[in-house]
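Input record (Table S2, row 398):
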Amino acid sequence: MQLPTKTPLFDDLKALVGQPVAAIDTPALVVDLDAMKRNLSRMAEFAKKHDVRWRPHAKMHKSSAIARLQMQAGAVGVCVQKTAEAEAMVAGGVWDVFITNEVIAPAKLARVARLAHRVAAENGQLAIAVDSTEGIQRLAQAMNEARVAGNAGAVIDVFVEIDVGQGRCGVAPGRSAVDLVHEIRKHPALRFAGLQAYHGRAQHLRSAQERRDVIAVAAQDAAFTRKLIEAEGVPVDLITGAGTGSMVCEAASGVYGELQAGSFLFMDADYAQNEPDPAQPRFEHALFVKTQVISSSVRHAVCDAGHKAHAIDSGLPRVHSFDAERELEYANGGDEHGILRPAGASVRVPEIGRTLWLIPGHCDPTVNLHDHLIGVKGGLLKGKVDKIIRVDARGALT
Ligand SMILES: Cc1ncc(COP(=O)(O)O)c(C=O)c1O
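Output record (pyridoxal-5'-phosphate complex):
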């Protein structure tokens, strides 16, 4: 007898297409495709209105199919954080990719250089961030070695990353960045493409005013650095950055020309806790973990989605409620279980078999726990499975 495989295979899942939502087994990661499409159109409209490019971060959805959808909606390309994510995007036919991160290991840089040649052959473009002379020299060496190995002379776009307050990668704004620009310009296989000025911490500052204040300083730092570089006769074509929490500030700054926001497409429970900025488009939750109650007692129920089904680094998931009332609280039940408690005296403990929808605390690491996204159209209650989307950059960590 042939035993069923542990994880649902793509072909098995494909049999769900056309079936009602009720047919999706639990736990499963489900995308409300209608909500996702609305988020996408609102982003496209917003970028157009502010005359900025958008290059969404694909480390969030890790899917080349979704990246292609974003580009069809007007995105100029996608961002990724890892070389392996870039490889997955390119393998999926996405030809304009920016690695918004420093890559240092020679073995990885050899892959970056091969990829730069691969996308150039398709008239695409690869870009990367740097924040050190050492990093630039290693990148240039890898690009030259790839050329010697028989590839045509591709050029990689290089962004100097400045630290505008996050305290992660990036050189200090000002003179150090100018020095790196000069270093990049020594190497014919590298093109200085602009500055990356991303402020990650600003994304989750709860008050809209605080986010505005922090990004005002970031924009000043970026503008000042641009001025110094241009004073030496080198144009700065683009300043890129911004995430979902602060993008309205970068867009309005007149300094940033490109938005890298990623989470807007799925919107997690953590982002829902930010005080909304009136200038921000209304982004809806589009990513859910479908779960069901497997045990129920007088005080609580237990569902089949624990922290192997959703990430908990930014807090526990929220139980989605279809009528604005908050009915159930989710508490940590370990890897495979969630504890559900009524949020008020009038709420009943859910019965065995009841289906629930969880809004993950943090979308990026949640997606990375799943091989597939199940795309639903027509709503979570009465809709149908429309497509199965491969998370083809799942686990792409190198
Ligand atoms: C460099 C960079 N740009 C953009 C983003 C996108 O942010 P978000 O998904 O919060 O919109 C991130 C997220 O961590 C990032 O690291």
